[in-house]
Every structure is written in C-alpha cells, then in structure tokens.
Amino acid sequence: MATDELSSKLSRRLQIEEGGEEPVAVDLHRPDDGADEKLSTANADSELGAKLLRRGELNEGHGEHVQPSAKVFNPYTEFKEFSRKQIKDMEKMFKTFDAGKDNYIDLMELKLMMEKLGAPQTHIGLKNMIKEVDEDLDNKLSFREFLLIFRKAAAGELSEDSGLSVLARLSEIDVSTEGVKGAKTFFEAKVQAISESNRFEAEIRQEQEAKKKQAEDQKQRRAAFKELQSAFK
Q1: Residue 19 banded pLDDT, cuts 50, 70, 90
Q2: DSSP string, 87-143
Q3: What's this model's pTM, rounded to 2 decimal places?
Q4: Which end of the chain is more exposed for a tag (fewer CB within 10 A), N or C?
C-alpha cells in the first residue's frame, strides 16, 4: 500500500513540475503512518530532488546536453588587415575550389587546388597543410581557416617551402584597383593599405557609389531605349 501511494505522489509531483497540473496544498501534519513509510518517502524525495535539480541545470545551460550558441564569423571585422576587396577575392577563390558546396575545403579539394595552381603536393603534404591552420581539428578548411593561411604568410609565420606558403604565393590577389602605387604583389599592397586612414569605411562608400552609378546607368539605358521605340511608332 505504501509503495502504491509513494508512486502516486512521485507521478503527481513530476506532472506539476512539467506544468501538467496545478500544485495542491498538502497537509504536512497528518498522522504518522509508520517509520518504514517515512524512510521510503524521504529517500524518494531526495532522489526526486536530485532529478529536479539536474533538470534545472540543463534548462539554465549548465548541463552537458545543451548545445553552445554558434558564434557568427565576420571576416571583415576579424581580419582587418585585409581590404574588403581582398577578402572577397579570397572568398571567390575559396568557393571555386569548394566543389562540395559545404563551406569547407577537404583534402581532395585542396589537392585539386594545388594541382590547378601548378604546385601538386603529396598526400602527407596536404594533410600537413590542413593541420597547420585546422583550429577545430575537423581535418578540413573553413573559410576562416583559409584566411588564416594568408594572415600567417603575411606575418612571415610560414616557412618558404611549406605547402601553405606556396599556396599563398601562387594565389596572389589582384591589387591593380586598390589604388596602391608600385604594389606588385598581394603582400606589398596589404602592408601599404593598412596605413590608410578610414580605409574600411572608404571602401564601403566606394561600393555604394558604384552600385548607385550602375543603377543610374541602367535607368538611362532604359530611357534611351524607350525613346528609340517611340521614334519608330
């Protein structure tokens, strides 16, 4: 009898905790039904209390089953040493060799990239290239890790004969439109571009002006076309 009553109490308490029922006041001063029942109830309450505490920890994010919030990666704010155009050129190159379109470059895709650049690598060489910038240890390159290659190369942190150094050297970004006089290579352009004040804001304004001019040109072409149409009517 005591076991059935205890089971009913535990079931009701769990329903109240999950919002299934409203709590009901319980008379704590009812007569003692026996020492054995009191001991069983105390043990059950202790176990239930531990379960409820565990559930509270999970809900508050302290439990091991709660997934951490994903951090949004912004290349323009994290890699401020590169111009917007340079980052976009790197992104274009990254997407070109991301054959699986999963936002990663795996071992086989890196192999194809190095072959296209004219510097094929051995299997061990490719694995070492990934390992050098693979911060999350997933054996493939994210776009952020891809940018790390150029950051390390610019900072002189790569040996001249390493695969990553060869990759950075052979994938020079065109700086002809960067407005940096005498800059023939990506790294020379980068060093000089860093010293420009408000460079980031200026590039955004240039992009906006270019889009505005493009829209105006399209508007003028449409107007000219309509005028030409009316002349033949």
Answers
A1: low
A2: HHHHHHHHHHH-TT-SS-B-HHHHHHHHHHTT----HHHHHHHHHHH-TT-SSSB-H
A3: 0.49
A4: C
